[in-house]
Amino acid sequence: MVSIKDVAKAAGVSVTTVSRVMNNRGYIGKETRKKVENAMRELDYQPNQIARALLKNQSFVIGIIVPDLSHPLFSELINWIEAYASEKDYKLLVCNSLQNAEKETNYISMLRKNRVDGIIMCSHNLDVEEYRNVAMPIVSFDRILSSTIPYVASDNYRGGEVATNHLIEKGCNKLLHISGPLDYELLPNRRSDAFQLTCMKSGIDCKIIQGAHVKATFEDNWNFIDREIASHLTDYDGIFCSNDFMAYTLYVYASKKGIKVPEQLKIIGYDYHSFTRMLRNPSLTTIKQPLDRIGKRLSSLLINQIEDNDLDRNNTVFDVELIQGDTT
Amino acid sequence: MVSIKDVAKAAGVSVTTVSRVMNNRGYIGKETRKKVENAMRELDYQPNQIARALLKNQSFVIGIIVPDLSHPLFSELINWIEAYASEKDYKLLVCNSLQNAEKETNYISMLRKNRVDGIIMCSHNLDVEEYRNVAMPIVSFDRILSSTIPYVASDNYRGGEVATNHLIEKGCNKLLHISGPLDYELLPNRRSDAFQLTCMKSGIDCKIIQGAHVKATFEDNWNFIDREIASHLTDYDGIFCSNDFMAYTLYVYASKKGIKVPEQLKIIGYDYHSFTRMLRNPSLTTIKQPLDRIGKRLSSLLINQIEDNDLDRNNTVFDVELIQGDTT
């Protein structure tokens, strides 16, 4: 490995001079600077960032914990988080909790040991207290952790309201909602609150059935529908699913059972991630979360905290959008 | 921040003893170990991994460069790479080249500066020489970089052969292949070689049209088909697409133009990532790459190199599998 001494020798200057050039400190003549820079280039000298990180007590690494790296919702978020972070010269360390509380605890501890500059929490399998004790910059996606930890989310309540009103406007009289799992107090639960309240206001019969966790294959979803939803299918004429995978599987299930979508049954989903954007035959009616803006905001909020600057550090709730597809 | 001295004081032992417990070195009585461990727990002591990394000259961080973090092929690969790496206590730093040669160069340089222990290259926008000069452990997905840099791939030639033979067995007489971009010498190009040779052997008329890069939305694919493929559509009765997104878009396009799939036109794809596994109406006929095994292997090959152990470091080519769907 090439050292700073080798660079100094090749450039015919002192180590202090090389260090000054590298750190842009003190007066350095143009010629000297050029000599040093040429030597660095020729020797392919890579200054040791780990040593620098120790010195500055900053690693320029952000940790992100998600429940499933391969889920399009999270891979898109990571994509946008990385895009913004890399503009600001931060790197992204990814951790996959697999919805497992122990793994999540271990990752938080690992990230602290590695002195990342901050953590973006997109996985939520622990009690709120455990995140409060993390004692480093942290931002959260879709969950309120404390008044001092900012969160970013789409307007989940509004999303539930828009979805429900859309089904009512399309003429549905009896509505079913397949929610996400409601065991933690997460912001997406507001979708279910909005569903219930909107139905009540309109005097519409409704029911909520709690769905499964985010990691769901087609077969998992199919079996869930077969077990929990099938017997209700003919009783309802509109179903609001809290994620697009469930909405899609439900469409396929209903079609196979001879129920015509959207004539007899209208289906609306939630997310509009890469799967949904690619999908045709049918295209799904759904609620779009602006994953690009959410990802960039998670990144910028965390970096603002880390750099302790005067920029905005407020919770951010992004507007959602109805995407009209073939299923309503 | 709690230091090793604080732990020693709380446990009533010397700093050397704490260090021994932490590093599992030298003889430590059971009682003493317990005292130290309790003190570490009570004080919530997090050993500084950055300092350790400097000491051991190892960071336990692996860098991975992909062309698109949000593409399901790469997000699944990352998922499996992380799963294996985390078992071995390595962390994953993700970099998104966005198919941009300059970004790729910058990332390689950044990873070297941060002294990652090795790099998994899944993005291929530079000339082979640039990777050879990296001078740290490196493994490659889908590309031969040098005789000393191991690669992992599915059997691309066999995949092309199986796909082509499948179309011929299903009765196709004139075959079209939409390949990936052939501007770099990548292993997936073998799919096109196999297509051509298999058609020649069977005396089947064939044509290859070069497709676009991996980042392709439905609209991009649709426009490409409209521009490059549409005028050929009725001349061919079987099309082998080098990725599932293209195959799916082609199915939608052909259907809209009144061409019946699979009766008039048979379509086969390649990849079988999460999008394809979720898809019904139609399910795609495709060639499955075992992304779980590829990801784990990329991880283990790199770690074997890093740890300089006696374990296997050979190039690995995994078998592919025909998935029969509705499009052939």
UniProtKB/TrEMBL annotation, chains A, B:
SUPFAM superfamilies given in the database record: lambda repressor-like DNA-binding domains, Periplasmic binding protein-like I
Pfam families, sorted: LacI, Peripla_BP_1
Residues covered by the HTH lacI-type domain: 2-56
PROSITE patterns: HTH_LACI_1 (PS00356), HTH_LACI_2 (PS50932)
Record's keyword terms, sorted: DNA-binding, Repressor, Transcription, Transcription regulation
Superkingdom of the organism of origin: Bacteria
Transcription listed as a keyword: yes
UniProt keyword DNA-binding present: yes
Single GO MF descriptor: DNA binding
InterPro entries: HTH_LacI (IPR000843), Lambda_DNA-bd_dom_sf (IPR010982), Peripla_BP/Lac1_sug-bd_dom (IPR001761), Peripla_BP_I (IPR028082)
PANTHER family: LACI-RELATED TRANSCRIPTIONAL REPRESSOR (PTHR30146), RIBOSE OPERON REPRESSOR (PTHR30146:SF95)
Full protein name: DNA-binding LacI/PurR family transcriptional regulator
